[in-house]
């Protein structure tokens, strides 16, 4: 009878722990006005980006809707503005509000796509390194160390030069979103790998892993069905920070001319496009997209900081 009484006793304990953490997460969110504001801001920006074709007054990719004679018009609160362009126009005569909406969508697509690639590579490598150990662990962690020695900018320069030399600059421009996702994703996966490896090293010593081995389960099933679910909390926390980092990396690369082309702009390429016009007085071409970028990244970072503090295991003691 004693052999059958242990498993039922452990299951309610795990369920109570999960319910306790979930309830604390919701309780903390309801009491934290900053987290609520950040989430509302982020959801609003994501919603506007997704609804860009319906919210934008014009299509910035349609050359027939661009009026070059209306270039560098100021926002509505400055004398000389045009009511048809609430935030003014850029140097090409495109409505600034429209290209900000479309540019935000491009930046978010690159950010989420790059983080998805980072997580896929990092989680798999971290699981293999932490669970298998030995030479596999040493090899994968040395690869991570080598990767961390190369910055995202350096990887972008090398990959961009190789692609442009072999396939041409037009190919890079046509597939700029995919190229940036690959560049940023391949440059930042060690962050996930190291975190997952540390969690796996702690989890594989626990009794449920030993029990799974005794039952004859294969290592692949133990890793992905039993160990991986218990490492999701740090993965979620890292993902929020990495999304913001990926968006900033894309903006930096676009500002340096290694990212999105001006014909298919992101927030970073919009800032770059207007940088040359600061001295002429058309500051809104750079500063308004820059303000959107700051609000977007700041809301993600602050939300990630709150999530990291709430999901800290030390907060659940007692």
Automatic annotation (TrEMBL):
<keyword id="KW-0812">Transmembrane</keyword>
<feature type="domain" description="ABC transmembrane type-1">
    <location>
        <begin position="104"/>
        <end position="304"/>
    </location>
</feature>
<dbReference type="Pfam" id="PF00528">
    <property type="entry name" value="BPD_transp_1"/>
</dbReference>
<dbReference type="InterPro" id="IPR035906">
    <property type="entry name" value="MetI-like_sf"/>
</dbReference>
<protein>
    <submittedName>
        <fullName>ABC transporter permease</fullName>
    </submittedName>
</protein>
<feature type="transmembrane region" description="Helical">
    <location>
        <begin position="143"/>
        <end position="163"/>
    </location>
</feature>
<keyword id="KW-1133">Transmembrane helix</keyword>
<dbReference type="InterPro" id="IPR000515">
    <property type="entry name" value="MetI-like"/>
</dbReference>
<dbReference type="InterPro" id="IPR050366">
    <property type="entry name" value="BP-dependent_transpt_permease"/>
</dbReference>
<feature type="transmembrane region" description="Helical">
    <location>
        <begin position="227"/>
        <end position="248"/>
    </location>
</feature>
<keyword id="KW-1003">Cell membrane</keyword>
<dbReference type="Pfam" id="PF12911">
    <property type="entry name" value="OppC_N"/>
</dbReference>
<feature type="transmembrane region" description="Helical">
    <location>
        <begin position="106"/>
        <end position="131"/>
    </location>
</feature>
<keyword id="KW-0813">Transport</keyword>
<feature type="transmembrane region" description="Helical">
    <location>
        <begin position="282"/>
        <end position="304"/>
    </location>
</feature>
<feature type="transmembrane region" description="Helical">
    <location>
        <begin position="169"/>
        <end position="187"/>
    </location>
</feature>
<feature type="transmembrane region" description="Helical">
    <location>
        <begin position="37"/>
        <end position="56"/>
    </location>
</feature>
<comment type="similarity">
    <text>Belongs to the binding-protein-dependent transport system permease family.</text>
</comment>
<keyword id="KW-0472">Membrane</keyword>
<dbReference type="InterPro" id="IPR025966">
    <property type="entry name" value="OppC_N"/>
</dbReference>
């Amino acid at each position: 009878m004693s052999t059958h009484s242990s498993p039922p006793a452990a299951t309610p304990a795990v369920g109570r722990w999960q319910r306790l953490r979930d309830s604390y997460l919701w309780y903390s969110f309801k009491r934290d006005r900053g987290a609520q504001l950040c989430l509302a801001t982020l959801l609003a920006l994501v919603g506007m980006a997704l609804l860009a074709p319906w919210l934008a007054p014009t299509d910035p990719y349609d050359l027939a809707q661009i009026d070059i004679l209306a270039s560098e018009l100021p926002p509505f609160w400055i004398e000389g503005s045009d009511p048809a362009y609430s935030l003014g126009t850029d140097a090409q005569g495109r409505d600034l509000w429209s290209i900000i909406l479309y540019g935000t969508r491009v930046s978010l697509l690159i950010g989420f796509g790059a983080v998805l690639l980072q997580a896929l590579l990092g989680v798999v490598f971290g699981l293999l390194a932490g669970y298998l150990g030995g030479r596999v662990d040493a090899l994968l962690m040395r690869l991570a160390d080598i990767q961390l020695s190369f910055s995202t900018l350096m990887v972008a320069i090398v990959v961009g030069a190789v692609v442009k030399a072999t396939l041409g600059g037009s190919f890079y421009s046509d597939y700029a979103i995919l190229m940036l996702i690959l560049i940023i994703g391949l440059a930042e996966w060690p962050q996930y790998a190291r975190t997952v490896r540390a969690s796996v090293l702690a989890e594989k010593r626990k009794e449920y892993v030993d029990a799974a081995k005794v039952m004859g389960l294969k290592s692949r099933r133990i890793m992905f069905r039993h160990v991986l679910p218990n490492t999701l909390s740090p993965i979620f926390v890292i993902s929020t920070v990495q999304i913001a980092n990926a968006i900033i990396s894309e903006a930096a690369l676009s500002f340096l001319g290694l990212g999105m082309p001006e014909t298919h702009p992101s927030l970073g390429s919009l800032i770059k496009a207007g940088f040359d016009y600061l001295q002429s007085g058309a500051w809104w071409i750079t500063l308004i997209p820059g303000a959107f970028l700051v609000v977007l990244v700041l809301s993600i970072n602050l939300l990630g900081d709150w999530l990291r503090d709430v999901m800290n295991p030390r907060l659940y003691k007692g």
